[in-house]
Amino acid sequence: MSFVKVSSAEFVSVLASKAPVPGGGGASALVGAIGTALGNMVGSLTVGKKKYADVEAEIIALQAKATELQNELLYLVDQDAVVFEPLSKAYGIPKEDPNRESIMEAALKDACSVPMDIMRTCAKSIDVIAEFAAKGSALAISDAGVGVAFAKAALMGASLNVFINTKSMTDKAYASEIEAEADELLGKYCALADKIYESVISRLR
């Protein structure tokens, strides 16, 4: 089942149920895609305006990047479900099964991979939205602010899905490497998102 092809109402309904997927990772990817699209909308409202003719080429290039990131995040909504289902089944393996630990470890690493990709993609989205906020139409600046708030929320949400899996890994060196990258992304891009948001607020009040 593709969760990006169902209606918003269906997605939210399944999300609220006890079904194992979609979960926090897929929801984070969707929120990130929406945030990126809001940045892209700023671009759409800028292109063709005489006032912004000098940055039009830059905005068009940014829109191409934003569209690519939107599509990647939508892809990751479904991919998160793909990698999480084997993990949910692995938890049901009897503890006395000699293969349980190796199956669990492989499933945990797979389940971590997509939330990490969501984090990396949201970081790129925040960079792009920063440009839309700085160069795009002032009439749409609030949309850039909403977009960056969503991208930050998606980044943070995906990180929790990373950490809940690394915590259970027996390969602590691998877990530490993943956690270090996640921490670096959080530190850099939450701060940048906050800076962009505050800049937007200062232009609205």
Question: What can you see in these coordinates?
Answer:
The protein has 205 residues and is mainly α. It has one domain: Four Helix Bundle (Hemerythrin (Met), subunit A) (Up-down Bundle), CATH 1.20.120. The chain is 78% helix and 0% strand. It is built from six helices and no strands. The chain has helices spanning 8-16, 24-44, 56-90, 100-135, 141-166, 172-204.
Features:
78% helix, Four Helix Bundle (Hemerythrin (Met), subunit A), single chain
Q: Termini, distance in Å?
A: 45 Å
User: What integer is the average pLDDT?
Assistant: 95
The counted number of beta strands is 0
Domain module tally: 1
* Class inferred from helices and paired strands: mainly alpha
- Quick one: overall form? elongated
Low-confidence stretches: none
Specify the CATH homologous superfamily: Formiminotetrahydrofolate cyclodeaminase monomer, up-and-down helical bundle
What is the CATH topology descriptor? Answer: Four Helix Bundle (Hemerythrin (Met), subunit A)
Strand content: under 5%
Architecture per CATH nomenclature, i.e. the level-2 architecture: Up-down Bundle
Radius of gyration: 19 Å
Figure out the total of helices.
Answer: 6
What is the subunit organization of this protein?
single chain
**Portion of residues within helices:** over 70%
Sum this structure up briefly.
The chain is elongated.
What order do the helices and strands come in, and which of them pair?
Elements: H1 8-16, H2 24-44, H3 56-90, H4 100-135, H5 141-166, H6 172-204
Helix pairs in contact: 2-3, 2-4, 2-5, 3-4, 4-5, 4-6, 5-6
